[in-house]
Amino acid sequence: MDTTLQKIIQLCKKRGFVYPNSEIYGSMQGFYDYGPLGVRMKQNIKDAWMHWMTQEHDDIVPIDGSIITHPKVWEASGHIQNFTDPLVDCKSCKKRFRADHLVEAFLSKDEKDDSESRIARISHVFKNHTIVCPECKGELTPVRTFNLMVETTLGVIEGEKRKTFLKGEACQTIYLDYENVQRSMRKKIPFGIVQIGKAFRNEITPGNFLFRQREFEQWDLQWFTHPDEMEKWFTYWKEERMKWYKSLVNHKDRLRYRQHEPDELAHYAKIAFDIEYKTPFGWKEWEGIHWRQDWDLSRHSQFSGKDFSFFDEKTKESYIPWIVETSGGVDRTFLFLLLDAYTEEENRVVLKLKPSLAPYKAAILPLVSNNPEIVTLAKSIHRILQSRFVIDIDIKDSIGKRYRRQDEIGTPLCVTIDHQSLIDKTVTIRDRDTMEQKRIAIKNLHKYIAKHSE
Ligand code: GAP
Q1: CA-to-CA dists, residue 267 to 78, 79, 194, 233, angstroms
Q2: CB under 8 Å to 450, separation ≥6 — which residues?
């Protein structure tokens, strides 16, 4: 595994961002728990997305749909039939692998591009070359498809339980609720529905920490448009989303678009672009911009009998709206932002996160811990500030060690209370990135932190 990723995994565990799930039982591959700092940071990321979508754009409203839906949803959506990855098993060690990943690893550097799947090439490469198990060099089975949907059962009487599925993609409830939202919110086309929700996939090879999990969160915009305006809105959202991701990162050159080849398009997409980030393990998908057209509303009409046509009062035209989707991963965002922010300097590790996304907005540090007056003042400042901001207070160890601890978790500001604070009611405020310090009045702290935590 890449060393930067390894360091981030260690930092996440040591500093309370992310823990392996069920660790005391040997962990579950592809499942993670967010710790106290991870919860704060993840919530900040989700708030930023929701704010951008619904408050910086017009005509976008949120929903929060259930994880379990009627099983017919997944027939209509095409997931039962088409939501598959190519799989091979090792005949000796019985391990399972994604055939497309083995092909990518097998191809020489020149032949290879950084895309995740080139389905058509897979069988061809397997047919013409001997690819063996990467773990034990054993013989592999022929390539077959494997459905990623996670099944569950519902019902109280044994033998009468009904099979259903956990959401394979979070957005399906948006299509189910489309007409309810459109009518109850009196929306006209074009308009958008957004949702942040859980998705579950029986990934063959979960890995790279939060990058490929079996339970994860997605954020989706489904933008409903007149078919004639599809191209305009597709381009608009593709550009808007890239701008947004650029606004979050320090390394803008690590972002790019990649258009899907026809043979790798998801069953619901006619055109797709990924926004990719250059991770230490290659260019990887961050968000997909999908030209879903009328796939979803037409299929749900067909399977449910419900007519999803929209009647335009002005033009007297009736049509099924087409859909532009922007669909990204919340956990992937969390990981990519850590990769982007992680910086090793001479004497410290610092997470150069955008202040608004950092778990704490500031840390209150009494310069000496054995002076009760200084500690009392520090505690009272902390109490006042924490009603508005998420603020840490750290009393133990040398001031240098405490600065390093805050740098490592990305706290943008450290507020030091010292003897002078008792006399003139001022404190020292230290900037995480420049390490510059200045003195400001305690009464101005509120304003200062608000201004510097955007
Ligand atoms: N509704 C469209 C859809 O689900 P997708 O490209 O399969 O499209 C969208 O997923 C985003 O969800 C991806 O760009 C990625 O950020 C995230 N994602 C997908 N699979 C994931 C996994 N196994 N673990 C973590 N995030 C994942």
Answers
A1: 7, 8, 21, 21
A2: 388, 389
Whole-model pTM: value is 0.93
Confirm or reject: Cβ of 225 under 6 Å from ligand 1.
Answer: no
CA of 206 to the centre of ligand 1 (A): 12
Say which residues have a Cβ less than 8 Å from residue 282's Cβ, sequence separation at least 6. Answer: 114
Q: Which amino acid is at 272?
A: A
The stretch 252-274 carries a mean pLDDT of 96
We report the CATH number of the domain holding residue 375 as: 3.40.50.800
- Supply the CATH number for residue 58's domain: 3.30.930.10
Ligand 1 pocket: which of 210, 217, 218 to mutate (most atoms <8 Å of CB)? 218
Judged against a pLDDT cut of 70, whether residue 234 lies above it is answered with yes
Q: Which atom of ligand 1 is nearest the CA belonging to 218?
A: 12
| Co-location of 158 and 16 in the same domain | yes
- What is the domain range of residue 416? 350-451
Q: Report the pLDDT value the prediction gives residue 117, as an integer from 0 to 100.
A: 47
Q: Is 139 near ligand 1, meaning CB less than 6 Å away?
A: no
Three-state SS annotation for 159-206: CCCEEEEECCCCCHHHHHCHHHHHHHCCCCCCEEEEEEEEEECCCCCC
Domains held by the chain: number = 3
For residues 296 and 224, give the distance between their C-alpha atoms in angstroms, rounded to a whole number: 11
What does the pLDDT look like over 6-27, one tens digit per residue? 999 999 999 999 999 999 999 9
Decide whether any atom of ligand 1 lies within 6 Å of the 30 Cβ. Answer: no
Atom index in ligand 1 nearest the CA of residue 171 equals 1
Residue, of 110 and 223, whose pLDDT is higher: 223
Q: Give me the chain's average pLDDT, please.
A: 94
Q: How confident is the model at residue 111 (pLDDT cuts 50, 70, 90)?
A: low
Instruction: Give residue 116's pLDDT.
Output: 47
- How far apart are the CA of 296 and the centre of ligand 1, in A? 18
- pLDDT at res. 434: 97
> Ligand 1 pocket, 328 CB below 6 A?
yes
Same domain, 284 and 422: no
- The rounded Å distance from CA 328 to ligand 1 centre is 6
Average pLDDT for 287-291: 98
